[in-house]
Amino acid sequence: MAAVRGTVGPAWPASERTSVSSTSPEVLRRDLPVRRSPGRERPLDRPQVRPLLGVRRAGSIQAWMLVLPLDAAMTALPMAWNPHYWKAFAALSVITVALVCGGGRYRARLHLSVLDELPALLGRLLVAIALVAAVFAVRHDNGGVTEFVLTSLASVGLVVAGRAVSTAVVLTARRRRIVAHRTLLVGGGELTGEVATLLDRYSRYGLAVAGYVDTLPGPASARVPWLGTLGDLDTLVAEHGVDVLLVGDGTFREEDLLDRVRTPATRGCDLLVVPRLHAFATATGHTDHIGSLPVMRIRTPALDGPAWALKRAVDVVASSLALLLLSPVLLTCALAVRWEGGPGVLFRQVRVGRDGRRFECLKFRSMRPATSAEGDTRWSIAQDDRVGPVGRVLRATSLDELPQLVNILRGEMTIVGPRPERPHFVERFSAEHPRYGHRHRVPAGLTGLAQVSGLRGDTPISDRARFDNYYIENWSLWLDAKVLLRTVSEVLFAKGR
């Protein structure tokens, strides 16, 4: 109940296994050499860690298991003395749970306090009440609106009381070490040592430290054992049943850290970070704290599950409707391409999609390459003399991309995602640009955040990769909607190539 573990992270493309961002466990252990003694699997000087006595692994016990049903019950309880409105209170209970549960609300904070939760909790409860009251108003039941709102105020008080009870239960379980999440600290500096001391001194945070990893032993060794380097992170997570990774200060490189905390072995762990200049941190946003040290919970991108199933359903419905409604446009484009360049309206090219899988990407032909090898290895043809008037119009308006609706319908692409690239350039860019291959954690898209941000044509690949990875790390259905709205503007005002 101390903290809800992150959602399942991404699978990793096969192309990554040979790049600087390789993520298979074997390659990870090979990339960062660890000082090992002959015949031993542990790094030299790694201390033998005493078992975390009295600490159970909390992976199967989560705070929401107590909080969610209690919220639902307290919201609906007023129907017991006002059964006439039982349907309204049942709906209020469902809406409340949906609103309060959304956005990771049931991820228990480190510093638990009903008073800290109260503003957001009251706001969501009032929204839920307003939604149900609106139904009464639409039915012109003004008397029902007043009576329901007055009765529902009891639900507000009951939910707050229920939260006080659930918070007390969670804190008691933490303090008695009935439930605590096993934690691995990343970094061996003084700050990391201070974090370890606070967690050992105050069990109310629900984190039990197994040790720390860093390039070399550091000052934190005076308070917590050094277990190895970042290269050992995957093994240590499995060996110690780690639920939480908490990043402090150390001698590791930031580039190495980014790769290590996004591997399949660590995808089930919460990722917490003590920010730099922590003395200047404020109490805004979704930050948490351990003692007086602010802690940021890094969002684990949800790259599967119900939200992605809904994204796929939207892809199927939208691409089917678009192919039907835009069929006159598609036919016009095809005839124009046939008139300008002769037979062969569609241009087919192998691209790399999710997890490194290759597929044949479809486009309207805007020019005819001299050889197939030229199309596979030449970077930009925007200023090529062989691009005729029709090709220029298609490329400027992005109409040449419309046949990719078929790729979306077949499941090879999605509507919003990183643009697909050719295998030749994927291998090249993965070797030249850090984390380029990480963009293959999701399906390739017809449009993407990088493209609507002006990163098309001859723009820096490193910038594109940063935008693509930003999109993945912060993915939501609303972010997809924003990209689509900006895409409409790009197409209507011909802001393309």
The tally of structural domains comes to: 3
Multimerization state: single chain
How are the strands ordered across the major sheet? 3-2-1-4-5-7-6
Fraction in helix: 40-55%
Instruction: Find the count of extended strands (DSSP E, 2+ residues).
Output: 11
Average residue pLDDT? 79
Which regions are unreliable across 5 or more consecutive residues at pLDDT < 50? 1-59
Name the structural class: alpha/beta
Strand content: 5-15%
**Shape type:** flat
Q: What sequence of helices (H) and strands (E) makes up the elements? A: HHHHHEHEEHEHEEEHHEEHHHEHEHHH
Tell me what you see in this structure.
It is a single chain. The protein is of the alpha/beta class and 497 residues long. It folds into three domains: 14-61 and 179-298, Rossmann fold; 64-175; 306-492, no CATH class. 44% of the residues lie in helices and 11% in strands. It has 17 helices and eleven strands. The strands form three sheets. It has a seven-stranded mixed sheet, sandwiched between helices. Strand 4 (244-247), helix 8 and strand 5 form a beta-alpha-beta unit. Helix 10 (327-341) runs antiparallel to helix 12. The chain is flat, with a radius of gyration of 27 Å. The two termini are 52 Å apart.
Provide keyphrases for this structure.
two-stranded antiparallel sheet, seven-stranded mixed sheet, 497 residues, 17 helices, Rossmann fold, 11% strand, alpha/beta
Protein topology:
Blueprint: H1 25-31, H2 64-76, H3 86-101, H4 114-138, H5 142-175, E1 181-186, H6 190-201, E2 207-213, E3 226-228, H7 233-240, E4 244-247, H8 254-260, E5 270-273, E6 288-290, E7 293-298, H9 306-325, H10 327-341, E8 346-352, E9 358-364, H11 372-377, H12 389-397, H13 404-409, E10 413-416, H14 423-432, E11 444-447, H15 449-452, H16 461-473, H17 477-492
Parallel strand pairs: 1-2, 1-4, 2-3, 4-5, 10-11
Antiparallel strand pairs: 5-7, 6-7, 8-9
